[in-house]
């Protein structure tokens, strides 16, 4: 299967970077190279560092961007971008773009084990290394599984799903995506099974986030990106669910916050000054036209800040 991805809020994200022809930029989630190519087409003698942790993405993006002299490609997680860029002598940078989440390739390629729509080995590792979803569902206690499903899937049926998983594995190991999907389906109330969408969606999301350490990596990646921005540099982040968006929103708000002295103080004594400003106060959401073309974009949000 070809590595493809339908970029959400594509034009808005690229335009938000305010790309200079001689600037230095980082695409921290290169994927199939759509954003990277758009940035490279605006550069003449600048540089773009494209990063992805997925070896399939690196293989594809290396081929797709081979004719762009301003392109540099490295396999890494975006949380490591500061170290990677420093080794290449590419700091500070004029802009960083992060498109958080799973690509269409990863979701639609059965062998990657991200989707409950296909029967495949239960994997979900973006980097193809480390602990898999199969390891989690077969080794963790029901209490640990319930915590993961509740925290990262925000599923109110987390406890019953976790108990269902542990009971099922007593008979045989849980090894495939459809096995797990059916276990989840049989573990939730009948009323939930009648609701739109598959009842396993939140469990699969939760396991994927845990397997890849996504929220921790996101916090680390945001700090890394901001630390290497030039004054006036821009950080653009596209998220796809509320947990991610909350982290980005709070982090940017923290950077944009100035004096925290009580309002009745006659002068500032804390000395805190804002380190950034928001480009869009509430972020941007997809247009109705984009939603029709790509239903997966429904929960997407673009937030951008400018370093002061």
- The helix content is 40-55%
Mean pLDDT: 94
Structural classification? alpha/beta
Largest sheet: 7 strands, mixed
CATH architecture of the largest domain: 3-Layer(aba) Sandwich
Per DSSP, the total helix count is: 14
Arrangement of strands in the largest sheet: 3-2-1-4-5-7-6
Secondary structure: number of strands: 7
Within CATH, the superfamily of the largest domain carries the name: Vaccinia Virus protein VP39
CATH domain class name of the largest domain = Alpha Beta
Q: What distance separates the N and C termini?
A: 43 Å
Note poorly predicted spans.
none
Work out the count of structural domains: 2
How does this model look, in words?
By secondary structure, this protein is α/β, with parallel strands linked by helices. It has two domains: 10-105 and 216-307, Rossmann fold; 106-212, DNA polymerase, domain 1. It is built from 14 helices and seven strands. It has a seven-stranded mixed beta sheet, with helices on both faces. Helix 3 links the parallel strand 2 (47-52) and strand 3 (71-75). The longest helix has 15 residues, at 242-256. The mean pLDDT is 94.
């Amino acid at each position: 299967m070809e590595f493809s991805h339908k970029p959400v809020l594509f034009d808005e994200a690229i335009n938000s970077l305010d790309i200079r022809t001689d600037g230095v930029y980082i695409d921290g989630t290169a994927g199939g190279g759509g954003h990277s190519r758009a940035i490279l087409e605006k550069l003449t003698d600048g540089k773009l560092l494209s990063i992805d942790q997925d070896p399939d993405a690196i293989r594809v993006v290396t081929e797709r961007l081979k004719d762009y002299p301003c392109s540099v490609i490295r396999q890494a997680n975006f949380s490591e971008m500061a170290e990677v860029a420093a080794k290449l002598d590419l700091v500070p940078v004029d802009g960083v773009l992060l498109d958080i989440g799973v690509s269409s390739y990863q979701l639609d390629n059965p062998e990657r084990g991200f989707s409950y729509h296909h029967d495949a080995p239960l994997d979900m590792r973006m980097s193809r290394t480390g602990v898999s979803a199969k390891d989690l569902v077969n080794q963790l206690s029901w209490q640990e599984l319930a915590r993961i499903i509740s925290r990262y899937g925000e599923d109110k049926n987390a406890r019953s799903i976790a108990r269902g998983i542990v009971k099922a594995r007593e008979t045989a190991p849980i090894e495939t995506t459809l096995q797990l999907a059916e276990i989840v389906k049989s573990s939730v109330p009948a009323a939930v099974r009648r609701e739109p969408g598959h009842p396993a969606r939140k469990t699969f999301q939760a396991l994927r986030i845990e397997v890849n350490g996504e929220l921790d990596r996101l916090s680390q990646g945001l700090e890394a990106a901001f630390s290497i921005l030039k004054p006036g540099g821009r950080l653009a982040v596209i998220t796809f669910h509320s947990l991610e968006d909350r982290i980005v929103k709070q982090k940017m708000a923290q950077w944009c916050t100035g004096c925290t002295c009580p309002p009745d103080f006659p002068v500032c004594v804390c000395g805190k000054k804002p380190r950034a400003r928001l480009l869009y106060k509430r972020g941007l959401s997809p247009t109705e036209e984009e939603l029709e073309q790509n239903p997966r974009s429904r929960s997407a949000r673009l937030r951008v800040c400018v370093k002061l």
